[in-house]
Design a protein that fits this description.
single chain; alpha/beta; Udp-n-acetylmuramoylalanyl-d-glutamate--2,6- Diaminopimelate Ligase, Chain: A, domain 1; Heat Shock Protein 90; 2 domains; 5-stranded mixed sheet; 5-stranded antiparallel sheet; 10 strands
C-alpha cells in the first residue's frame, strides 16, 4: 500500500514528505511505546502514534519505517518535521484516533475504501446525513466482523442511542457472517438520516432457495467445519428480524441475496 493511499483513507494532513507519498509500505504498526517499535517493528512499515515528538520520528527512522502518522490531530512542535525531511520520512497528521485509523486502513487493504467522514460527526443533528460503503469477502473468517465493527464505531461517533447502535451492529454482524459463510463477496451500504439508519448488504453467491424456510429458527445450511468454528446455528436471519424495524430480503438462486435492514431513530 502506498503512503498516498493511507493519507487519503485517513484524510490526513501532510506535515513533511510530500514527495514520499508514492513509497510503498508493507505494515502498519500502532504504538505509543517506542521501545516496542524498536523491538517488534518491521522495516518498510508506517507508524501510527499519539506521541507527537521527535523521539517518535527518530524511533521510526531507526526501525527503518517509511513514515509516521500522528493520530487525534496531533502535530509535533519540536524538530520532527526537519528530522523527517532530512531522513526522507513522510510525516502526517490525522484527526482519527488510533483504533479508527487502523480500522480504516484495514478496510482499504480489503478493498473497502471508507467514504470521507463529515466534519460534523460526533453529534446527531436534524441535518445529519451520511453514507458509507464497505466490502465483505466470502470465506474470510479471519476478518469476519470487521465491517460490523466499523459500522458500530461510525454510529457511536454520531452519538446515536446505544441500544439502537447495538441492534444495528448485531444485525449487520449476522448479515456479514452469512456472506462469509455462503457468498463470494458483498457490498455493504450504510446510510444515516435524521430519522433512519439503513444497512443494505448486496451479495454475490448461491442465493437462498426458500427465504421462508431460511427464516425459521434452527434452519441452517452451514457445513460441519463452520459449525465447529461456532457459526451456523440457524439463528442468523431470525436474529436480524428480531433486531430490525423493517427487513426486506430478495434472493435469486445462483445470483445472490439482498438484505435491506432499517432502524428508526
Amino acid at each position: 500500500m502506498q503512503i498516498r493511499q493511507i493519507k487519503e483513507a485517513l484524510e490526513a494532513l501532510v506535515i513533511e514528505g510530500e514527495g514520499n507519498l508514492d513509497i510503498e509500505v508493507e505494515h502498519v504498526y500502532a504504538s505509543d511505546l517506542m521501545s516496542d517499535v524498536l523491538a517488534f517493528g518491521k522495516p518498510n512499515s508506517i507508524l501510527f502514534t499519539g506521541l507527537a515528538t521527535q523521539q517518535a520520528v527518530i524511533s521510526a527512522h531507526l526501525a527503518e519505517f517509511n513514515g509516521v502518522v500522528f493520530v487525534r490531530g496531533k502535530k509535533s512542535k519540536d524538530g520532527s518535521h526537519k528530522f523527517a525531511r532530512d531522513n526522507h520520512l513522510a510525516l502526517l497528521s490525522t484527526r482519527f484516533d488510533m483504533y479508527d485509523a487502523c480500522v480504516r486502513i484495514d478496510s482499504v487493504s480489503r478493498g473497502a475504501v471508507p467514504a470521507p467522514t463529515p466534519a460534523s460527526v460526533g453529534a446527531a443533528t436534524s441535518e445529519m446525513s451520511l453514507s458509507h460503503q464497505l466490502l465483505i469477502l466470502g470465506n474470510d473468517f479471519t476478518n469476519a466482523g470487521m465491517v460490523s465493527t466499523e459500522v458500530k464505531s461510525i454510529l457511536k461517533k454520531i452519538g446515536l442511542n446505544p441500544k439502537l447502535v447495538r441492534r444495528v451492529a448485531i444485525s449487520t454482524y449476522e448479515g456479514e457472517m452469512n456472506v462469509v459463510m455462503h457468498a463470494v463477496r458483498a457490498k455493504v451500504n450504510l446510510t444515516v438520516t435524521p430519522k433512519l439508519v439503513e444497512v443494505t448488504i448486496d451479495d454475490e453467491g448461491k442465493g437462498i432457495p426458500d427465504v421462508e424456510l431460511a427464516m425459521q429458527e434452527g434452519f441452517t445450511t452451514a457445513t460441519e467445519e463452520m459449525r465447529a468454528m461456532g457459526f451456523g446455528s440457524g439463528m442468523g436471519l431470525p436474529n436480524i428480524k428480531r433486531n430490525t424495524d423493517e427487513l426486506d430480503i430478495k434472493s435469486k438462486v445462483n445470483q445472490g441475496t439482498r438484505l435491506m435492514m432499517r432502524f428508526f431513530i
